[in-house]
Amino acid sequence: MKLQIKLALYNTLTKLAIIVFTGLLILFSLEKITYSHISLRLKNKKNTFIKNLSTKEIGQVLSQEQTFTNYNILKEEYIFLKQIPYEASLKQTESLSTQRRTIERTTDNYLILTYRFNFENHSYLLEIGDTMDAVVQLKQTIKEFTLLMLVVALLLTLLIDLIFTKYLLAPFYKIIDRKLIKVNDPMNFDYEKVKTSTQDFELLDDSISTLMKKIADLFILEKQFIANVSHELLTPISIISSRLENVLLNEELKEDSENKIFASLKTLNRLKSIINSLLLISKVENNQFNKNDEVKIADVVTEVFSELEDRLEDKKLVFNNNIKHSYTILGNHSLIHTVIFNIMNNSIKYNREEGSITVGDYFNEEGYVLEITDTGTGMSEQQIEKAFNRFEKLDTDERESYGLGLAIVKSITAFHGIKIQIKSASNKGTSIKLIFN
Q1: Quick one: pLDDT at residue 419?
Q2: Per-residue pLDDT tens over the stretch 185-212
Q3: Which DSSP symbol is given to 170?
Q4: Kind and range of the H or E element at 373?
Q5: Bridge partners of 113?
Q6: Residues pairing with 101 in the sheet
Q7: Which of 98, 182, 225, 302 gives a 20 to 30 Å CA spacing to 119?
Q8: What pLDDT score was predicted for residue 57?
Q9: Residue-wise over 253-291: b if at least 16 C-beta within 10 A, else e?
């Protein structure tokens, strides 16, 4: 999961927890708050009613009818006053309770304030009620509203966090893209700093640039070392080869000695071939070749076939040239020739007797594709992963393999911007695709 998504989810869950806690606290406190509010309102009405009892008109009503009842048109509130047996020492007491009351055939739950008091040598019972149905409806409305606000807040929080984290992490992803993903060669590394106001990202940018500088320096030293050593080794090898060839001209040389000298010359030639291969890789990686030739892929395949025709016949291999397109690239003709030669040479070397090699081409969304397929021993997944490593050889009886053919292919294709793919399975053959952008 991306860091941006993790940060957004973390912030959303944190805020969600706070919102849920606050919402639950409001819901649980709502009934108590409402109860206290209605109680306070009933007490205020009681105080107002008692104050108005001092007037002569209400006193006359009470003395004549003994009771007094008043309620609003919706029957949500009512006031009830009743005369009770007189108690001279009656203490003025009030109490709150929830009871059901029927007013004109309508029964509701009421919060009732009951108050007993004396007035003009009479004792009275005062009840002031407020319906609880409105409270229940209010609670339900607040619950639904709270739930709706919770969902809206959650969605807004997630959206805002995603936008903010995307803005916050934009320099981070830019650093990863420019300075890691798109870097195929330390020599072409982009040292320009990515603009950011976050110190952590600046530190990451500087650290990657410093590391790449060290890698590039080591890479240059390695290339120079290989090139210098390879070049210096060619001279003594040539001298030794010449001296051994001169020794062979001696007519008095015994047959046993001649065989040993021939074996030594063969070893020197093999060493010379390895050094030349390493020199070629070094020159390609150091961009010491031009790419100004118009190379026709179909013509190169024909040239390689002509050079390898004898080897194909020796192994009784069938060569199928199924190239249908005349595709031309701008590059180095000799290097492209080396790529196709090495691939086809491996197809012959690791093929079975009376097998086949097929060369075909087509276009897809990536560009022009040249595919070389054989019926050889094939490679396992582990071997495919190491196929382009230097001196990596297949586990076969082939003695002429140095493990540098595909390493050369990899360097040349990278030099020309050609993508190479290998598809293979043990004992089922190998297919190598060259994709020209």
Answers
A1: 93
A2: 777 777 888 888 888 888 888 888 888 8
A3: H
A4: strand 367-374
A5: 96, 128
A6: 108
A7: 98
A8: 53
A9: eeeeeeeebeeebeebeebeebbebbbbbbbbbeeebeb
